[in-house]
Amino acid sequence: MTSFDDDAVSASAAYPAEDGSAHAPHHKVDRPRIEAAVREILLAIGEDPDRGGLIDTPKRVAKAYAEVFAGLHQDPADVLSTTFELDHEELVLVKDIPFYSTCEHHLVPFHGVAHVGYIPSHDGRVTGLSKLARLVDIYARRPQVQERLTTEIVEALVRHLKPRGAIVVVECEHMCMSMRGIRKPGAKTVTSAVRGQLHDPATRAEAMSLILGR
Ligand SMILES: Nc1nc2c(ncn2[C@@H]2O[C@H](COP(=O)(O)OP(=O)(O)OP(=O)(O)O)[C@@H](O)[C@H]2O)c(=O)[nH]1
Ligand SMILES: [Zn+2]
Question: pTM here?
Fold first, then answer.
């Protein structure tokens, strides 16, 4: 049995904490430790972790967590370093990017869509469209709150693409508000972050009309 998640090990070695984010990873995904903790949780809720249906659950959860939290060990710089020469001075927007994240307060999912747009820099370079969706996943696959997820995506765009403007809008349902606690399934939380020329009211209105025009 390997002690650490293989993908996480190889990715984390190259990840500098250059963005100063609270998410700079300090540890690799330690699967045996997760397994031991899940066994403890099962005992604590009054379950029998040795019964047939649960015997492999700690291992499964460890494997799932390595995937769900893989973003802790991935560097947005790697994704956004792929750029192309293309003279486009207007808004580029990828909307309705579906994602799943994990509420850092309750460790249950929140999920929804992200809309990510930017006005390319004057240097005539744009990034690949899929890279914007990859960027969303890198930050979503961490323990998160929606506000920070939104800010981290826009800040990564600014840092790595040097765009003239950037906008990120995130719409989510939080399972911690649906399946427990206040129990309001269907309630949506919307967060946004804008930078640079997207602060201009007309440019921002254009972006928002594209985002909302479903
Ligand atoms: N701002 C923000 N709050 C969040 C997010 N995800 C979960 N929360 C909230 O985090 C809060 C935690 O409140 P606490 O009073 O510490 O915990 P709690 O007793 O479980 O709260 P309830 O969910 O109201 O039962 C709750 O109001 C959640 O709705 C998020 O992404 N952003
Ligand atoms: Zn929560």
Answer: 0.89
